[in-house]
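Here is one chain, start to finish.
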Amino acid sequence: MRILFISHSPPMKEGGAETRTREVAFRLARSGHEITILCGTTDADDPPLTEINGVRIVARKTLPDWLLRRYPYPHYVSLAAANLFLMFYVPSFLREGKFDLIREDLAPFPPTFLLSLLRLPVARRIAITHMLSRTLRGWTKYYGPVFGLAGFVMDRLLRSGALKYDRIICDAEWFADELKESPAIAEKVCYVPNGVNLDEFIPAQPGPSNNGNIRLLSVGRLAETKGHRYAIEAVSYLKRDYPGLTLHIIGNGPLKPRLRAMSQHLGVADMVEFRSPVGHDEMPKLYHQYDFFVMPSIWEGLPVSLIEAMASKLPIVASDIPAISKVLGTNSATLALKEDARDLAEKLRWAFQHRDQVSEHAESAFKIAKGYDWAVTASREIEDL
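Its structure:
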């Protein structure tokens, strides 16, 4: 089968949607399918054409280099430009390639933009979506007034059945259940979760931190939905009792200056370190450098980093939101109220003081992680097509 993936940014980036695109594409290519990925250039140094593991990756310019240098991935400006302008490249791809299937990431907008309203000359067309807000207030809260309004309109069109997809795949069970409440698309919606390379993520052996220090890890784009501000505030509540506590936040994004300023204002700048994303092949050993994984998210689909932490047996303290509680319960993670830094601090304090129970939670989470596999995800995405 000849399959055209359409994604707003190159698949070797370190976001959740990009990770899924990369892992699924590689496995489908390995199975004998011919895979091309059309994406936008979201960094000035993104190569226009590469081939990795049998997958052809074509990146098209959607902004001039000077703007890409000012607003590189994962800034909303470069991602929005890709979602807006990629549609102009699609018709020529379809004429030249004669694809059997289009697989398109809605993360959160369709990168074919207005072409999502039209039938295209392919046998099947599927959308992979992670989470969409039901309300205009939610969209503007997380994406600002301009991008939020555009996202809200596209969300309404999707739920009304106006977007021309034959199948709508959700990576989160809670979101699939929500979309099925829309009668126009209910029969098209299915749940296919994200996965993990279990062979790469060797479980860490439990033990005390070096010199009695406690090391926290948080991974994710520096955006409102990830809730990093609550983790920083929680550290400020714990700093007196745990002076050796450190929080490392792995990720880039538009909120970095604000989060840095917040850590300085709260007097924890020496305890909170912002680190740039690392390559996906370096992630397995990264988890082993920490004592706890902290995910203070306000809103998520199914975070890849959560499953990776589970596969690493890294104890998890996270927000009690559907994306997390549908995967992990109170017997496999320590859950805190969302958008509540004080409660997060108290849950962290409990975890620090109950290492045996926390280790049991991590063991339970590891067993759950065994049910997530990228190979299964790849085959289920195109089954029955």
